[in-house]
């Protein structure tokens, strides 16, 4: 198993049961389609060794590795150049369960997804600005040998409210962006404001409307007794006399002139 080289076998059986047996042997179902220097390639059902597939991918270029592909088991052995177009992952085990290989002509342009790398600290961070990433990959068109490993974007000039669009990304020679040039890639957003809930303090001495008096406290003047208070009194008990009101202070006679 070498980087950039992969041998697969034509698959004759299809269906869920056949795929389960393949995976039990460390292989997965796949399909190869696309084009070669000799013309269009009809879709071919294949079985792929998972370990061999991982080993064939360059650790830096990853999915954009141009693979020298050998297909065995047909009427004749075919040799092609291919890219990993797509793959499926088991949501629980995180294993690869299916792969699509795209046969290519090395001399013709293809579509590829290139990862974006963001470097630097934005100027707006001094005032609390926060980086918001909108896109993490860029779709480009280029010959297989010209596909960049990644595209680096410097975010240090960004002030709060500034945006970098696709049109501002510097591309290598012979590489064209397919992603809409007007789309936002990254922005420096305003800091999020914390919401503080203000609770009004109760006025000292003011009772809440409808609130029952505290235990042992005398009811307010003219207020009806609390529910159940009358029932609590025993028969024959005498009601306590009401407190006598203090006499008003005698008014002093007006001073004579």
Compact summary:
The chain has 257 residues and is mainly beta. 8% of the residues lie in helices and 35% in strands.
What is the terminal separation in angstroms?
Answer: 125 Å
Calculate the mean pLDDT score and round it.
81
**What is the CA-based Rg, rounded?**
40 Å
Order of strands across the widest beta sheet? 1-3-2-6-5-4
Give helix % range: under 10%
Query: Which shape, going by the Cα principal axes?
Result: elongated
Major β-sheet profile? 6 strands, mixed, barrel
Order of helices and strands: EHEEHEEEEEEEEEEH
Secondary-structure class: mainly beta
Continuous helix count:
3
Uncertain residue segments: 206-218, 220-257
Q: Can you walk through the features of this model?
A:
The protein is mainly beta. The protein is 8% helix and 35% strand. The chain has 3 helices and 13 strands; from the N terminus they run E-H-E-E-H-E-E-E-E-E-E-E-E-E-E-H. It has helices at residues 16-24, 50-56, 229-232, and strands at 5-10, 27-36, 39-49, 67-72, 78-89, 96-104, 110-119, 130-133, 137-142, 151-154, 163-165, 176-177, 184-189. The chain has a 6-stranded mixed barrel. It has a 4-stranded mixed β-sheet with strand order 10-7-9-12, with no helix packed on it. A 3-stranded antiparallel β-sheet has the order 8-13-11, with no helix packed on it. The longest helix is centred in the N-terminal third of the chain and has 9 residues, at 16-24. It is elongated and about 65 Å long. It starts with a strand and ends in a 25-residue tail after the last helix. Mean pLDDT is 81; it is low at 206-218 and 220-257.
């Amino acid at each position: 198993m070498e980087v950039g080289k992969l041998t697969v076998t034509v698959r004759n059986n299809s269906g869920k049961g056949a795929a389960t047996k393949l995976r039990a042997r460390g292989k997965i179902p796949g399909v190869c389609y696309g084009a070669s220097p000799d013309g269009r390639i009809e879709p071919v059902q294949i079985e792929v060794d998972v370990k061999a597939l991982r080993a064939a991918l360059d650790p830096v270029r990853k999915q954009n590795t141009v693979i020298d592909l050998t297909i065995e088991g047909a009427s004749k052995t075919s040799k092609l150049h291919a890219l990993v177009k797509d793959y499926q992952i088991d949501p629980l085990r995180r294993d690869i369960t299916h792969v699509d290989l795209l046969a290519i002509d090395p001399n013709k342009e293809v579509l590829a997804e290139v990862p974006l790398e963001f470097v630097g600290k934005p100027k707006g961070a001094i005032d609390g600005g926060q980086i918001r990433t909108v896109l993490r990959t860029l779709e480009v068109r280029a010959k297989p040998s010209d596909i960049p490993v990644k595209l680096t974007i410097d975010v240090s000039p960004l002030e709060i409210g500034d945006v970098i669009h696709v049109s501002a990304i510097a591309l290598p020679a012979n590489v064209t962006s397919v992603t809409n040039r007007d789309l936002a890639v990254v922005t420096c957003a305003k800091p999020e404001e914390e919401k503080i809930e203000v609770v009004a303090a109760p006025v000292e001495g003011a009772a809440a409307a409808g609130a029952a008096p505290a235990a042992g406290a005398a009811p307010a003047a003219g207020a009806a007794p609390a529910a159940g208070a009358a029932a609590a009194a025993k028969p024959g008990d005498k009601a306590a006399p009401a407190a006598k009101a203090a006499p008003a202070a005698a008014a002093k006679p007006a001073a004579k002139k």
